[in-house]
Design a protein that fits this description.
Blueprint: H1 6-22, H2 26-40, E1 45-51, E2 58-65, H3 72-81, H4 88-91, E3 98-100, H5 101-104, H6 113-119, E4 124-134, E5 137-147, H7 155-174, E6 201-205, E7 211-214, H8 216-224, E8 230-231, E9 239-240, H9 241-254, E10 263-267, E11 273-282, E12 288-297, H10 300-310, H11 315-325, H12 330-337, H13 341-355, H14 360-378
Antiparallel strand pairs: 1-2, 1-5, 3-4, 4-5, 6-7, 6-12, 8-9, 10-11, 11-12
Length: about 375
């Protein structure tokens, strides 16, 4: 970018963020942002991903542009099992979560296994990747690619991407908010009740990442997941790229190459929350074997942290909210948190403003009841006595 392009860049950035603010879901956000961003930072291919804000694990939905589906496994093999540069887990904690491959390798991209195994065979010469992060939590990833022979991503372009990280992450985070109540006051969110089979979905992947077997419940879950990049399997099942990546990460953790829980929350197309978790099984000799991926309805305790995070509550406000949900009065909350009642009232006021409610009861209903009450109702046995 030259000095003469700065005004155009400023206008384009404002248009991008304006469109992002109007997006109603992650895929809409990705599509609009990519359309505007490509005019400011030209690129030939891209992947936009949602991540679980607690674990940082890739989840759904994903938008892939000008890339073949067969490369997903190759990409994540390089990310998880080789000594590479610009790893997403490192960028998530970096002061500036944006990096270019050629810049990081001193314009010697062949030093990167990602370049050799994934990019070079596809005619790609540089990657700019970013972690969309707000409040210290990753909400998504961006990977932008330029074709071989084009200029590497420059400092000004990386600075522009860095300026978009927080606002785009904040918008992604907001999609976890429950929908506003209907005019009659009843929740309008999709019920978390399970329309699937009676058991969890189970997929078994071999050490090389190939799908070995899958149960019928898993097929029902897969059928309800958002559209996105997927890979074929011998069973005729199209496995979402992020599900396969979860199995690969489980193996990487078992081999000591990665760390952290392999667990991610995702919404199906009807808005119900699911949880996907994976672990690597051990062979008779103790070595890592197949990886098991389980998909099942998310428990309320796993959903609420995402909703609280979506409203941008601070750690202290979250603590106060949890005590309110338990029905504790201001004085008791103050004593437990070693604060003055006046400070607690200030926190409560701030929480009300962020969540858009005016009473404790409305707060509990907004954050908790919509998710706790329906499962409880399903577990009640109702009888009548004459």
């Amino acid at each position: 970018m030259t000095r003469s392009t700065l005004p155009r860049t400023g206008t384009g950035r404002a248009e991008l963020l304006s469109r992002a603010a109007k997006a109603t879901d992650a895929l809409g956000l990705f599509a609009g942002a990519s359309d505007r961003l490509r005019r400011l930072v030209p690129y030939d291919a891209a992947v936009w991903r949602v991540t679980d804000p607690v674990t940082g694990l890739m989840t759904a939905p994903i938008r892939a542009e000008n890339l073949d589906e067969g490369g997903c496994a190759v990409y994540w093999e390089a990310e998880l099992f080789t000594d590479n540069v610009n790893l997403f887990r490192d960028l998530a904690r970096a002061p500036v979560p944006v990096a270019g491959l050629r810049r990081a390798t001193g314009d010697l991209p062949a030093r990167s296994t990602l370049y050799e195994s994934f990019m070079r065979p596809r005619g790609l010469g540089d990657e700019l990747r970013a972690v969309l992060r707000v409040g210290g939590r990753p909400q998504g990833h961006i990977s932008l690619f330029r074709a071989e022979g084009r200029a590497a991503f420059g400092d000004a372009e990386m600075a522009l991407i860095a300026s978009l990280v927080t606002p785009l992450a904040g918008r992604l985070r907001s999609f976890a908010e429950p929908p506003a109540p209907t005019p009659d006051g009843s929740p309008s969110a999709a019920s978390p009740g399970s329309p699937y089979g009676p058991g969890p979905g189970l997929l078994l992947f071999g050490p090389g990442g190939a799908l070995l077997s899958v149960n019928d419940d898993a097929l029902a879950y897969l059928d309800a997941l958002p559209e996105g990049p997927a890979v074929p399997s011998p069973q005729g099942v199209r496995v979402p790229a992020w599900v396969r990546a979860s199995a690969m990460k489980a193996r990487a953790v078992a081999e000591g190459r990665d760390r952290g829980p392999v667990r991610a929350r995702v919404r199906d197309r009807a808005g119900r929350w699911l949880v996907c978790h994976a672990s690597c099984l051990r062979e008779a000799d103790g070595g890592p074997g197949a990886s098991a991926v389980v998909i099942e309805p998310a428990k309320s305790s796993e959903i609420v942290p995402l909703i609280v995070d979506a409203y941008g509550l601070t750690d202290r406000e979250t603590e106060v909210t949890q005590y309110i949900a338990r029905g504790l009065p201001t004085g008791e909350i103050a004593a437990l948190l070693h604060l003055s009642p006046h400070t607690v009232r200030d926190h409560i006021k701030a929480v009300f403003e962020k969540v858009g409610v005016s009473s404790r009861g409305a707060l509990v209903g907004r954050l908790f009841t919509e998710y706790y009450a329906p499962p409880a109702e399903r577990n009640i046995t109702r009888v009548r006595h004459d």
